[in-house]
User: Fold Cation-translocating P-type ATPase from Amazonocrinis nigriterrae CENA67.
Amino acid sequence: MSANSLPEGAATWHSLEVNKALNLLDSNADQGLTPKEVEQRLQKYGPNELEESAGRNAWQILLDQFTNIMLLMLIAVAFISGFLDFMSWRAGELKPGEVPFKDTIAILAIVILNGILGYIQESRAEKALAALKQLASPLVRVIRNGRVVEVAAKELVPGDVMLLEAGVQIAADGRIIEASNLQVRESALTGEAEAVNKQATLVLPEETDLGDRINLVFQGTEVVQGRAKVLVSNTGMRTELGKIAAMLQAVDSEPTPLQQRMTQLGNVLVTGSLILVAIVVVGGVIQARGFSNIRELLEVSLSMAVAVVPEGLPAVITVTLALGTQRMVRRNALIRKLPAVETLGSVTTICSDKTGTLTQNKMVVQSVYTDSRSVRVTGEGYAPTGDFQLNNQKIPVESHPDILALLVACAVCNDSVLQKQNGEWAILGDPTEGALLTLAAKAGIEKDQLNSKLPRVAEFPFSSERKRMSVICRVEQVATGEQSLTAVDPVIANLVQSQAYLMFTKGSPEIILSRCTQIYLGDHPTPLTEEQRQKVLAENDQMASKGLRVLGFAYKPLSEVPPEGSDETYEQELVWLGLVGMLDAPRPEVRAAVQECREAGIRPVMITGDHQLTARAIATDLGIAQAGDRVLTGQELQRMSDQELEQNVDLVSIYARVAPEHKLRIVQALQRRGRFVAMTGDGVNDAPAIKQADIGIAMGITGTDVSKEASDMVLLDDNFATIVAATKEGRVVYTNIRRFIKYILGSNIGEVLTIASAPLIGLGGVPLTPLQILWMNLVTDGLPALALAVEPPEPDVMKRPPFSPRESIFARGLGSYMIRIGIIFAIITISLMAWAYNHTHAAGYQGDRDAWKTMVFTTLCIAQMGHAIAIRSNNQLTIEMNPFSNLFVLGAVVVTTILQLMLVYVPPLREFFGTHYLNLQELAICIGFSALMFVWVELEKLFLRFAGKKAV
Ligand code: ATP
Assistant:
């Protein structure tokens, strides 16, 4: 769709008056568009989507698969093997019926298959990531048909009227219709980090630069503060961002830590196998005193090269990660960046917000404090039913103008809506404010009714930095004296005195109180004495130490409407009204989650904007704060240098009254101490800390788009317990990956050593062909490995310390286990091989003289079945485990054994795979030797148990 399809004059929205713009787009600021108009415009302009800039194309993704060093080695093997076959064919050495180039074809098929698998996985991973992004993608609030509704960003059309507030990522370009204190960060577009003040009323010259078009907003930029109503002018590729979309990065495709570890593994394996090949060739040449057996040595080398590459591993890893991501979503943790699945298991410190994450975010006001009296408020939830009680006696609020004035402030200085939904009282908006509406309604004071008496004309919005907000209302229609209809009217008249406007302010009590010079006790404001001030602060502490969230209220009569940005001037010399304390109960499941964290060596830390005493009460209740732990306030933190903070950061478990910028310093200090930090956040200013954290976590329900965009993981239920659950899943995923790597590579080492030993101990011929090795690595190792990937968590998975994210894949005994088991595996098979060779070459042997090779092949396969069963646990013996707790392993073992026997006993398969018939006795001997592998792994566990060590 070209820009021409927009109405004439639409190229320069900034030089149009709002009404002109609305007319051009045939829209209405109050009604928005009708569903029919939206439908037509969607047809006409298409969805509001950016076309992804071309990253790698399909061919490049496919080609990239073949740059893997292990696959390159396999390709070389295929060609050398093809050359040898060609020589045999020319020399007429092929046996009748033998398929030439079988190994070459099989290896190349595996290489291509691996390439295609890798390709499918990568494209699917990209698609899955895109789908995850979609899930977390923002909804936009728009006015359609006169009602406020939320629609997906891609459904926006030119002419829509969208509503913006702090934290929103703007989804389309638009002309501002109304704005209040609107500040937008446009760094995505202009590179300018500083937020820009935006205004609706201006009409700018046509030639104004993009960065100066302050009556427009642009897609991809972020609302830092304030509110606005915006007419959508351009969507999709016609937005300013769309125009430069081709310059944007495609989906991030940095290798994940696991991919890096796999590359490291590939290099070690390939180097190791080349060294072994060299040893075998040199050893073979020396033994034969010449190059007579060079062809056999070459065949041995080729087999070894095939044996060392774990062909099935990439597929198993991808499946494991995909399953891990799915399991996490089922537990309400949405992974936005894939590496998080692997690295979650490494988290050592979880820094969590309090409100909503550790607590339920369902506020109920419990007490009100005015004029030195603490009044208890009864009632539950958001239902506006309950009493005001003084010394356990119900009091008539109508006759207490000080309380009435406070309740008016609660209802007016408020952006939430209290309403009945499906018969239940519920709130739209911030629960803190919802509780205040409920409180006021308990005294019959309703926001809707006050709106006509006190229409809002301006505001200084709330932010976590300011910790307060103010609204300015014009005072209308208040009747006093005998004409007054309600008890509220005389109170309002009393507050406004002879002025035209009233400002109501609420926020953190210390901040509000410090800006007050007078106090309202029900009559006229009187100067606030030091004694009164101390009393209020003492009451504030009293309420906070009970775990209540406390807000302070004040007001000020004004003669004019303050201009935008003049908060510092106007929010001074206020008249104090009182305190309101509300309970936000801890989430019941969090206590157990905190306990689980501690056992798992993870330290939970509370970071909150709330009062230190409130924070401490809740943290103590939840077990986050322990004896000796420190509370640090934002002010103290502000005074500390980075070094001082770093020295203290391990001792502090509660940060109170902090601003979002402090969060960044806390993460950095923890990281400098070597901690692996998960950090939650919801506000627009939390984004830097979320980005800096090793695992940045955004809130799915209360989080802003900006915080979600910066995060690695989104909590769909905003719950701390979900972080712990996801961490556990991360550990399970990583443990299972390590488990099947041990399983697969132990076997590869065993195979390589067995093949290498055949010529060295003077046996004639190569025991295993490349085709048989591929079969083992893909099928007989691959299936059980896949089954091990879904192994349920071991009971102690959250009882051991976190993994270091920087550790090598061979750390914590994995490397030594692989080598040890590889050697044991080789000793078992080489012993069998020696016995079998002598047996089939003994005088009077009736059967196939090459049957020893198939005995080696069969033993290698069946021994791995025992290994798969035993390796399910590092510490528990197999008889101590529930054999049915992972049916996949049982199934894989049965299926694989049957398949292996088919290769020996079904003639066409025997022919194709070049195996030999085994009689019952030979088969029994293979099974007997194979069982030794199982026995060994079990004995290792017993040994560790008696030695008092635990394998990890
Ligand atoms: P957390 O960071 O754990 O979510 P919080 O919700 O208390 O804690 P903020 O939302 O940043 O953090 O609030 C900080 C302080 O600002 C609160 O303790 C309260 O005193 C004040 N406050 C919160 N909400 C409002 C509001 N809607 N209007 C005025 N002041 C508020």
